[in-house]
Write a structure and sequence with these properties.
It is globular, with a radius of gyration of 26 Å. The strands form 2 sheets. The chain has an 8-stranded mixed beta sheet with strand order 1-2-4-3-5-6-7-8, with helices on both faces. It has a two-stranded antiparallel sheet with strand order 9-10. Helix 10 crosses helix 15. Helices cover 50% and strands 10% of the residues. The two termini are 51 Å apart. A hairpin with a 2-residue loop joins strand 9 and strand 10. The protein is an alpha/beta fold. The chain folds into 2 domains: 247 residues, 3-Layer(aba) Sandwich (Rossmann fold), CATH 3.40.50; 282 residues, no CATH class. The protein has 18 helices and 10 strands.
Length: 590
C-alpha cells in the first residue's frame, strides 16, 4: 500500500471511530433526557438463585421521599432489555420508574430461557422492592413473550400491579394464565393487523380477526365482535379493556410511534402520577438513530483496520493480489448463481423442521436452540455447496484450475498452514478491536449497537464459551461460501463495489424469496404463508444485514489477500458473536 492509500485507510479508521463515539453520545443524550434521567445497569438474585439483569430508568426528582409509579417493560423472545428502549424512554420521560429486564436465558440474565415465568416473577418482585417506586401504582408492559412474563407475574401477584399492556401478545398461551373479565386488571391489547402469531396467540389465522375470537371476547366480557379503540369495562373496578390495532407486523409494534404511543396512552389512563405529555410526543427514535450510526461505525472499522494491519511487518506477507480467474463463465455462471440462490431455501426448511428437538435439542455444548438450527442449516448448505463445487471442478475445471485459482492454496506451497494461522490471527485482532468499541459504548453510554431487531451486543463469559462451541461450524460454512463466491462465481475484472454487489445478490436473494413466500399472503389480508415458520420468518430479517456485511468482508479481504481465509475467519467470528449474544440460552450448565 502506498502512502496515499495508507493515509486514506487511517482517515477511514478515524471516521469509523467518530461515528461510534458520536452515535453513542446521541443515543445516551436521548435516553437520559440530556443527563436528567438516570439509567442503572442492575443485577438481582431471583428464583433458585438465578441472576436477572435489567436497565433501571429513574426520572428526575424521584426518591424514597418522593416515590413514582413504576413500570416493568419486558422484551420478547430472542430480544434483550434494550429492545424495549422505545417504551422505556417514553415512560421515563413521563415520570415513571422503568425496569427493562433481560428475560431469563436472554442477554445478561442466567439461563435457562422460560424459567421463573419468563423472568416476570422476579422482575415484578424487584421493582416492588424499590423504595423509589409507589408499590400500589405499578404497570406491566410486555411485547410478545414479554407479555407472557407480564401475565405470569400478575397471576402470581394479583395485588402487585395496577394495569397491563400486552403488545403483540396474549393471555392463556404457553402455560400462562388465561384471561377473564377481571384478569388481568385494566388490560390494553396492542395487536397489529399483520401479526405473524395471531394463530398462536388468539386462535385466529388472520390477524385482523382476533377481535372476533371467543378467547378475546371472554376477556372483554362481550358477545359482540370487539371494536378497535373502544373502551370496555371500568377503570375504577380494574376491568377496563381496550384493543389497539396498528397496521404493521409483529416485531414492528415495539419500533413504532403508534405502538409505543398506545402503551403510553394506556399507562397514563391507568396509573396515577407522572407527567401527562401527549402520547404523540416521542423522541425514542433518535436514540435508535444513534445506535445505528455507531453500528455502521463498527462495521466500517474492520476494513481500514484490516488494511493497516496488512501493512505491518507481521501480517504483510498475507497481502497478495487475487489469483488468475478460472471460474464459471457465460451460461454456466448463471446456472451456478441460480443454484447458489436456491440451495439454502429447502435446506432452511429441513433445519427448521427439527428446531429444538431430536439432534437439535439443547445441550451443554450447543445450548441455544435457534443458534443450533442456524448452525445446522449453515452446515447443510456448506456440504451441498462443497459437493457441487467438487463435482464441477473434477468434471469440468480440473485441467484449467487448481486450488491457487480458488484462493485456497499458495503457488508452489500448497496449503500454507503458517499463513492460514496468520489469517486467523488477523481476523481475531480485527474482531477483538470491534468488540472493544462495543465494550466502550456499553460502559460509556449504556448502549449496544442496533437498529430495530438487528443488534450487536456484548457477551458474558458464558456467551464466550458458547461462542467458541459454535465457531468452528460457522468457519466451515464461510470457508465454503468464500470458495464458491471467489473460486467458482468470480466475474471478470470488476471494481470492488461491482463485485461486492454481485456477492450480496448471491447471498441474500434466497431470503428475499423466503420472505416473499411468507409475507405476501399476510400483507394481502390472509394468513401467513407458512405459519409453522412464523418465528424464523422474523429471524430471517436479520439475515439481510448479516449477509450484506458478510459479502463485503469476504470480497474486501479476498481482494486484499488473494485467499479466502481472512474473510471467512472474520465473518465466522463476527456472525457467531452476533448470533450467540443475541439468542436465548435454553440449557443451564451447572
Amino acid at each position: 500500500m502506498n502512502d496515499r492509500h495508507l493515509s486514506g485507510a487511517k482517515r477511514r479508521l478515524i471516521v469509523a471511530l467518530l461515528l461510534i463515539f458520536f452515535g453513542g453520545l446521541l443515543a445516551w443524550c436521548v435516553q437520559t433526557g440530556g443527563g436528567t434521567i438516570k439509567i442503572k445497569d442492575v443485577r438481582f438474585v431471583g428464583s433458585d438463585g438465578r441472576i436477572t439483569s435489567a436497565l433501571l430508568y429513574i426520572p428526575p426528582g424521584v426518591s424514597s421521599k418522593a416515590p413514582a409509579p413504576g413500570i416493568v417493560a419486558t422484551h420478547g423472545y430472542i430480544n434483550s432489555r434494550e429492545t424495549q428502549d422505545g417504551f422505556a424512554i417514553e415512560f421515563a420521560r413521563r415520570g415513571y420508574v422503568v425496569l427493562a429486564p433481560d428475560q431469563s436465558g436472554h442477554g445478561f440474565s442466567d439461563p435457562p430461557a422460560f424459567a421463573a415465568g419468563f423472568g416476570g416473577l422476579d422482575t415484578l418482585r424487584y421493582l416492588r422492592s424499590l423504595d423509589i417506586v409507589d408499590s400500589k401504582n405499578i404497570g406491566l408492559e410486555g411485547h410478545s413473550m414479554g407479555g407472557w412474563a407480564s401475565v405470569a407475574a400478575a397471576s402470581a401477584n394479583p395485588d402487585g400491579y395496577a394495569s397491563m399492556v400486552l403488545a403483540s401478545s396474549s393471555t392463556g398461551t404457553y402455560g400462562v394464565a388465561d384471561g377473564t373479565p377481571t384478569f388481568p386488571r385494566n388490560l390494553a391489547i396492542i395487536f397489529s393487523r399483520y401479526d405473524e402469531f395471531s394463530g398462536l396467540m388468539w386462535g385466529s389465522p388472520i390477524p385482523r380477526d382476533v377481535g372476533k375470537t371467543q378467547k378475546m371476547k371472554k376477556i372483554f366480557d362481550t358477545k359482540e365482535d370487539i371494536e378497535v379503540g373502544k373502551l370496555y369495562g371500568s377503570l375504577e373496578n380494574g376491568t377496563a379493556r381496550k384493543l389497539y390495532s396498528p397496521s404493521m407486523i409483529h416485531p414492528r409494534v415495539h419500533f413504532s410511534t403508534e405502538g409505543i404511543g398506545a402503551a403510553v396512552e394506556w399507562m397514563q389512563m391507568t396509573l396515577k402520577g407522572g407527567k401527562h405529555l401527549p402520547p404523540s410526543d416521542q423522541i425514542w427514535y433518535w436514540k435508535e438513530l444513534g445506535t445505528f450510526i455507531a453500528l455502521i461505525g463498527m462495521i466500517l472499522l474492520v476494513f481500514p483496520l484490516g488494511a493497516l494491519l496488512l501493512e505491518t511487518g507481521f501480517f504483510r506477507e498475507l497481502g497478495e493480489t487475487p489469483p488468475e480467474q478460472k471460474s464459471l463463465r457465460g451460461a454456466g455462471w448463471w446456472v451456478g448463481a441460480l443454484l447458489t440462490v436456491l440451495i439454502p431455501i429447502p435446506l432452511l426448511l429441513v433445519a427448521i423442521s427439527s428446531h429444538g428437538k431430536a439432534y437439535q435439542a439443547a445441550t451443554a455444548f450447543w445450548p441455544q436452540n435457534i443458534t443450533t438450527t442456524i448452525m445446522y442449516w449453515a452446515l447443510f448448505v456448506a456440504v451441498v455447496s462443497l459437493v457441487l463445487f467438487l463435482l464441477w471442478h473434477g468434471l469440468f475445471n480440473r485441467k484449467h484450475a487448481s486450488g491457487v485459482n480458488y484462493g485456497l492454496t499458495w503457488s508452489g506451497r500448497g496449503l500454507d498452514i503458517r499463513k492460514i494461522w496468520k489469517s486467523l490471527l488477523l481476523a481475531a485482532v480485527i474482531a477483538v478491536a470491534a468488540y472493544l468499541t462495543l465494550a466502550f459504548s456499553a460502559w460509556a453510554f449504556t448502549t449496544d449497537y442496533r437498529l430495530w431487531i438487528f443488534a450487536i451486543k456484548p457477551m458474558t463469559i458464558s456467551h464466550f464459551r458458547i461462542f467458541l462451541c459454535y465457531l468452528i461450524p460457522f468457519v466451515i460454512y464461510f470457508l465454503v461460501i468464500g470458495l464458491c463466491l471467489h473460486g467458482q462465481l468470480r466475474r471478470g475484472k470488476l471494481g470492488f463495489w461491482a463485485e461486492a454487489l454481485i456477492n450480496i445478490f448471491l447471498l441474500i436473494t434466497a431470503y428475499i424469496i423466503c420472505e416473499a413466500i411468507q409475507y405476501a399472503p399476510l400483507l394481502a389480508g390472509g394468513p401467513l404463508g407458512l405459519p409453522p415458520a412464523a418465528l424464523f420468518g422474523i429471524v430471517l430479517f436479520q439475515f439481510f444485514p448479516i449477509f450484506v456485511i458478510a459479502a463485503l468482508v469476504s470480497t474486501y479481504f479476498f481482494r486484499k489477500t488473494g485467499h479466502i481465509y481472512a474473510g471467512a475467519f472474520l465473518n465466522a467470528m463476527l456472525v457467531t458473536w452476533l448470533v450467540v449474544a443475541g439468542q436465548a440460552t435454553h440449557f443451564a450448565c451447572k
